[in-house]
Specification:
The chain is an alpha+beta fold. It contains 14 helices and 25 strands. A hairpin with an 8-residue loop joins strand 22 and strand 23. The longest helix is centred in the middle third of the chain and has 16 residues. The protein is globular, with a radius of gyration of 26 Å. The protein starts with a strand and ends with a strand.
Length: 535
């Protein structure tokens, strides 16, 4: 193994030199070198200029070895089995970082390690498996919220952790864009949750073998149904959404549903096609997050659509209809690309891709989530509208912003427990309630609270209960005046309604009526991690 130290400025030249020397590519054509240089430059130019780089040769990469033994080793030409590993650090690379216990611990505590990139010997498509922390990006590129998880890696034999989303490029022979999306999704879920496993490309090929009607190598790509089938075979409960189906009505729900699932912290497989060419060959990428919304600006826009009205008394604004940039992982480009949904390939900077549109997306749900986003939002809206049952009829404000998302009950209860602005009694009620593994949450906020990311109303639904009959899915509902929740000792039907004695300072001077002190409190933001920097 050879080790080299470089900087962001010199990294491209240094990597090319190591690549040529290690893989004996001294006789490659000038055009091929230009291709490699272009790929590496695109990746490195997005990284902060103060990043320090460690280059190691002879690295055994699990993903490339899987490709090698199942495809490249069967070809006549010789292919190298090892990769070159690039490690990114926030601080200068010193001997004590790797060779002293104190230096190693300090590097870990200070999050000095910012990710890795594997260079494959699959010339000229050399960008292999990589995980890059958004903190390594230049500030103007890294301001967004995204799905991430922790990945373990080593640099010079020392173990480090990096938080990010997995990425790789296709090699054009064994891996196409669809194969990469399946691998990346399972790499993410397999590292984040114990219920799932990391899946290498050869296992995906095996799982698809029973439904394929022709040979699988070299790859000819996969359909949207095949991608969904592979995810189901790997333990997920995928659901396919089609623009043709969800945009046929005047409500145009396709993009709001897309936004809702991203807000739920779920990476989404996206298929994109050229709308001017029928049956054109499409492209598959993954959406992992979005840039922070500007809800205040939307509320000032007279054309901003309301989600629903209640007899002219309440206007409900859907958070998911706010126009915002989303974050995409595209195997043809470096990670964390930004684009609006109407032009999802805008970051290609080519006029040809202007007419490419999102046609489908696949949501990788937990198999036992039976209530989908559309039904959850419709139920929440109906509870806001309902003025017949007192336990479903808190006195909402005349303008409400509704933010809907799916989350695990464990994450949500932790947020409730740590929320110091929430009334202690309400905290105790929610913490003691029996929740399913996942819940749908509708956060309600008056316009004046949006700037401070606060809410003053809450509706929680059971994500395992698709029935709307007799409010079966409703678990909890509250705003600033009252609260109702499903209880074994109900006061009205299956629900218990409570009024809480406020502190003496909060009592009304005119009377002593007990009211629920549900003051505005911080919204839930644990689904997707915030990477916001001051530019």
């Amino acid at each position: 193994m050879d080790i080299y130290i470089s900087t962001q400025k010199d990294a491209v030249d240094d990597i090319i030199e190591v690549y040529r020397r290690k893989y004996h590519r001294c006789n490659v054509t000038d055009n091929s070198i230009i291709t490699i240089r272009s790929k590496l430059r695109d990746y490195m130019e997005r990284i902060r200029e103060d990043i320090h780089i460690l280059i190691e040769t002879d690295y055994v990469d699990k993903m490339y070895r899987d490709q090698y033994y199942n495809y490249y080793s069967t070809k006549r030409d010789d292919y190298y089995r090892d990769c070159i590993r690039i490690s990114f650090f926030n601080s200068p690379i010193r001997e004590e970082t790797f060779f002293t216990k104190e230096g190693t611990l300090k590097a870990r505590e200070e999050d000095d390690y910012l990710g890795f990139l594997l260079i494959r010997p699959t010339f000229p498509k050399i960008i292999g498996r990589n995980v890059l922390s958004p903190k390594a990006l230049k500030p103007e590129l890294g301001n967004f919220r995204t799905c991430t998880t922790c990945f373990s890696a080593t640099a010079n034999g020392v173990k480090f952790d990096v938080t990010g989303f997995p990425h790789a490029s296709q090699d054009g022979e064994m891996l196409c864009c669809a194969d990469i999306t399946i691998w990346a999704m399972m790499e993410y879920f397999g590292n984040k949750y114990p219920e799932y496993c990391v899946v290498l490309p050869s296992k995906t090929m095996t799982s698809l073998g029973n439904i394929m009607y022709q040979r699988q190598l070299p790859t000819a790509g996969l359909s949207i149904e095949s991608i969904s089938y592979a995810l189901k075979e790997h333990g997920l409960g995928p659901k396919i959404f089609s623009r043709e189906e969800w945009d046929k009505d005047k409500d145009k729900e396709f993009e709001p549903l897309f936004s809702c699932y991203i807000e739920s912290g779920l990476p989404i497989v996206v298929t994109i096609e050229d709308t001017n060419v029928p049956n054109s060959e499409g492209h598959a990428i993954i959406c992992v997050g979005h840039v922070e919304e500007n809800m205040e600006e939307c509320l000032r826009d007279p054309e901003f659509e309301t989600f629903g009205k209640t007899d002219g008394l309440i206007n409900v604004y859907d958070w998911d209809k706010v126009r915002k940039e989303f974050i995409f992982m595209d195997d043809n480009c470096p990670p964390y690309q930004k684009a609006y949904l109407e032009e999802p390939l805008d970051y290609y900077k080519l006029e040809y891709y202007k007419e490419w549109k999102i046609t489908h997306f696949i949501v990788p749900l937990y198999p036992k989530i039976y209530l989908d986003a559309h039904e959850a939002k419709q139920q929440i809206l109906s509870y806001i509208k309902n003025r017949k049952s007192c336990y479903l009829n808190p006195q909402w404000d005349d303008r409400i912003i509704l933010r809907t998302f799916l989350t695990s009950s464990r994450s949500y209860k932790q947020y409730i427990m740590h929320n110091e602005e929430l009334n202690r009694h309400i905290q105790q009620i929610i913490l003691e309630m029996e929740f399913p593994k996942f819940v749908w949450v509708g956060e309600l906020s008056a316009p004046e609270f949006v700037k401070d990311k606060k809410i003053n109303g809450l509706i929680i639904l059971d994500a395992t209960e698709p029935r709307y009959i007799e409010n079966e899915s409703l678990l909890f509902i509250a705003n600033s005046t009252r609260i109702a929740y499903k209880s074994e000792k109900p006061t009205i039907n299956k629900f218990r309604e409570e009024y809480i004695e406020p502190d003496s300072a909060e009592k009304s001077k005119e009377n002593e009526i007990n009211v629920l002190p549900l003051q505005p409190f911080n919204r839930f933001e644990s689904n997707i991690k915030n990477f916001m920097y001051n530019i």
